[in-house]
Amino acid sequence: PYTTLFRSNEAQRLIQRNHSPDGYIIGVNIGKAGGQSRMHVHVHLIPRYVGDVADPSGGIRCVLAKRPHGG
């Protein structure tokens, strides 16, 4: 778990330096009912930009639901 968090921080710094997002969504899917398809720990680090969707409230599920084909 510590290694996963460390790598997430490394990834965030790299994304920030190269793409300058305004924010991030961090997600972890746990169990099949939670949307996990690979049964190992991994973290989704999704860069976000002001204006990428009209209303980002509600997190990733609401953002993806507003996009064509759910994502």
Cα-based radius of gyration, to the nearest Å: 14 Å
Helix content: 25-40%
> How far is the first residue's CA from the last residue's CA?
28 Å
Indicate the mean pLDDT. Answer: 81
* Number of contiguous helices: 2
| Pattern of helices and strands | HEEH
Shape: flat
Biggest β-sheet description: 2 strands, antiparallel
Which structural class matches the secondary elements? alpha+beta
Residue runs with pLDDT of under 50 for 5 or more positions: none
Q: How do the strands of the widest beta sheet line up side by side?
A: 1-2
Content of β-strand: 5-15%
Total number of β-strand segments? 2
Describe this structure in words.
The structure is a single chain. With 71 residues, the chain is of the alpha+beta class. Helix content is 35%, strand content 14%. Strands 1-2 form a two-stranded antiparallel sheet. It is flat and about 35 Å long. It has helices spanning 2-19, 59-65; strands spanning 23-27, 44-48. The model has no long low-confidence stretch (mean pLDDT 81). The chain starts with a helix and ends in a 6-residue tail after the last helix. The protein has two helices and two strands; from the N terminus they run H-E-E-H.
